[in-house]
Amino acid sequence: MRAYQYPFSASASPLITSGNTKSGLALRALAVSVPLLLLAACGKHDGGGAPGGPGGMPPPEVSVVTVQPRNLALGFEYVGQTAGFKETEVRARVSGILENRLYEEGAKVKAGTVLFQIDPGTYQTQLASAEANAGVNEAKLNQAKRELARLTPLAADKAISQKEFDDAKSLAESAEAAYKQSRAQVNEAKLNLGYTKVIAPIDGITSIASKSNGSLVTASDSLLTTIVQTDPMYVNFSVTEADYLKLIKEVNAGKVSVPGKRSTNGSLNFEVKIKLADGSIYPVAGKMNFASERINPANGGFDARAQIPNPDGVLRPGQFVRVMLAGANLNNSIAVPQRAVIDAPIGKIVFTVSPDNKLAPRPVELDGWTNGEWVVSKGLKAGDRVLVEGFIKAHEPGMTVKPVPFVATAASGPAAGAPEGAPAGAPPAAAPAEGAPAASAASTPKTSPDAKSAKAAQ
Asked: Which one, of 1, 24, 22, 20, lies nearest residue 12 by Cα?
């Protein structure tokens, strides 16, 4: 502490003169004694108070949780994209001029609804020609059959040669084959004429028409529109290789339990919820129904898919969403509230309260985040009491405190940016307690009010 400078010191006082010796001696004594008294008082305050609180105050009351191993809900979150349950291209099956669009773009249609009309004139002519050709062949067949019927008894009586009979029989067979061929051509012409009416192959929502009325539709440019079935919806996403390997390792070790058994298509029975672009949670949950057996080289993960009911049509194909998988449990694990963990220069720490109510910092290792809590893999054991609230009042190792059970409230819940249900492995950084700088709260005791006053005087 630097020396104090007073305006009534012996060297500066105008009252101390050679003509007033007694008064001068008294003032000299006063000038020397006052700084000493102040220094003694400052030294008393700088020395700290009783172990319980500053200046001999009672031990401060703090909130603590007593940790116990329990099964924790384990979730995973990935980026996904919605897709229709069925997505069908509507294509013209014959060439021609597009006469008319018969549906409202974006409307729901039923399977079999006529969507487009292609000019049928050419195909009506082809049908008439095929039917006429079939009639000619039918007449020839009937003639050949009559000739064969006439020659059959003659051949039996040996009235005609065997060759003449065989020729008549072959002619009847050829006429029958020609007639069948012409009937097939009639059927083909009917199909082509029917294809001039382009119908919806499935129920669903139509897209914009890719051809306008009067356009020429050809075999190489036949796409007219698309139809998407949106109830239910698919959500496609990719599971990272790191998550997959960690999950398999922990399942085999008994640390994690997963819902149900692995199905024949590779999927697990995870419950699936999705978070929309505005941050809201879609109210209807679905199920995971597919997981690939091989890594996709395009993204380095395993392709997976979930099926989500969409009765109100809120979801549309192509939306980017956050896919949240739930149903797995982290067995016999310890977790503490987010605000109990402090960032320190040595890493993550918590303050524990000993049986005699003394504060002690404890380094911990974290293994993810679940339901607003940090999962602690190392550093804590069953029965440890961990400080959650009261860091401003109690932050010095060895300090005596008065612990009371922590009661979670909305204000002390999960930190912003880490809503309940957020997956392990992707939490926000540990926050300093109650707005204090993390390093200061962990490594440097906060200055007591008395000490602050003494420093201000300096």
From this structure: 24
